[in-house]
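tool_log.txt
---
The assistant was asked to compare two proteins side by side. It first ran the structure predictor on the initial sequence, then on the second. Raw inputs and outputs are pasted verbatim so the downstream comparison step can read them without reformatting.
(1)
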Amino acid sequence: MEVNKLIFVTRIFLLFLGLTSTLAHGQGTKVGYYSTKCPKAESIVRSTVESHFKTNPRIAPGILRMHFHDCFVRGCDASILIEGSNTEKTAVPNRAIPGYNVIDDAKKQLEAACPGVVSCADIIALAARDSVVVTKGINWNVPTGRRDGRVSIASEAGDLPGPNESVFNQTRKFKNINLSVQDLVTLVGGHTIGTAACGLVTGRLYNVNSSNGADPSIDPTFVPTLRALCPQNGGGSNRVDLDTGSGSRFDNSYFNNLSKRRGILTSDQLLWTDPSTKGFVLQYLRSATSFNFEFAKSMVKMSKVGVLTGTQGEIRKLCTAIN
């Protein structure tokens, strides 16, 4: 037994070494990029996240979602933060994400400490990691060195996976940015923290298939609970934990809920029934260690999508506007 445990730990260690080695040479980003340029950069972001989290825990899943949404459109370039009449920030999926103020606060402090050095794109990536940590999830090394984009167009947010999409469509959108089916299941596992508005849920609870019944893919004993949280008439702004029973803690119980047919969003529950994704759901509900390790790996992989480095883009003085 001890030998097997040693083999497993060694394998994880070697995989991690390989991962960090890849990061150090991947797409112009590297772990510790600011170690001499702005030594307190990561600690400033971390303390800012921790401070805001104490007064508003919703910022943690919000920032994680923000990073995801940013990377899916034009790559991880902080284009989601730019304000204007037709920017990504105005698109429906991005309007109400909690945590924009946290990024702005961290940027203000970093500009005071190291003017013109730390990109908004790196702040989002670091804050996403720190948001997982404050909700009792895994810690990992974040490669930095991204630069900020200068273009942000609301219509491009249509590339984001939606709450009612088939696994086929979700997989296609992930593959468009070179993320695998396993990355899909792993990263959607971020729904272990956070909530959904009832407006995204009520369609599964009432008058499904021209009857007064609920979506048959939902555990029927769970329907009354959801209906109490999301009444048929009104309550569209109420919110439901995406991981029932553990919505504020980063763990693997989200996958256990899928196996019990208690996924909140259609797109989530489909991961349990589709043959291409069910195996990964089973893997993660059986092993929190596996989920945590793969989540960190997929987050790093996603964070390198379409990054701007070197002389590309810019380092914004304000995250909300191009220079």
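(2)
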Amino acid sequence: MKPSNLLLKLSRRLFEIPDEQERFVETLTNPQPYHPCILWCQPKPESPFAAKIITPWQPEFIDCLPIKEKPGQNPLHEKGYFYCLDFSSVFAASTLLTIPHVKLVFDMCAAPGGKSVFAWKALQPELIISNEVIGKRLGMLISNVKRCHISPATIVSRDSRIWAETIPYSCDLVIVDAPCSGQSLLAKGEVAPGCFHPTTINKCANRQKRIIANSAQIVAPQGYLAYMTCTYSPEENEQVCEWLLERFPQFQAIEINHLKDYQSHLTTIPCYRMFPQHSLGAGAFTVLFKNLEQGETKAVNVENLPKIWHNLKT
């Protein structure tokens, strides 16, 4: 596939070295398969897969599989033993591995559920609230949370503004896997019409700023805000982080030691990128903020939440 002028322009913005520009463009125009990846939700049985370790920081509950493997067709998948995801999602969510024990996790843009499942497995919170505002995506979120036996969990569906107004300063961790232009879909051989167009990018960036600003308001004092995308444009990544820190100076981006080799060269803020030419996954951006404010965490009355689905530990 011939690269578009907009893709070529983005490659020059992202990389100074022509060889790196060419590798990036080639990966998107002639995509190659990546290793399928699974997150073990339940105790791992005698695995039917030949697992691979592809990074030293890969958590023990993540397995990467041979490229031709199709784990979604295995009976263990339907029984909820594991969740299928791209390794880029593991990269993005791995910032959560540095967080101490948390009681309440709020996943703001949760569908299809991968980050909620990762947070539940990695942190074992007392409650995870998964929010999805787009109605047609709720079904897959509910299905995945139920199938993977995530508990205690609550699924809700309200705009981020509503949560900022109703449960401020309440959540130990808020995850924003932000809606984006989806440029990394091309690295998977999928389509994302208009994903490099400035109008699309600016529309996404404005939406991301609104969501992250509302999300910041429900982070408890000394709590965490994890922001991530699966796109490459600086407007949706580094520039959103810079915007947030200007408006919410009580937040500070946290250095993630195991991701130091992936530090974004486009900012001095500690935030991290995986590009598709790294051959690990389709690409992702991730950053972890901490709310440095002191104060009391406000309690959330789960019974008063407008729940779509609710499951307690048995």
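---
observation on (2): The radius of gyration is 19 Å. The mean pLDDT is 95.
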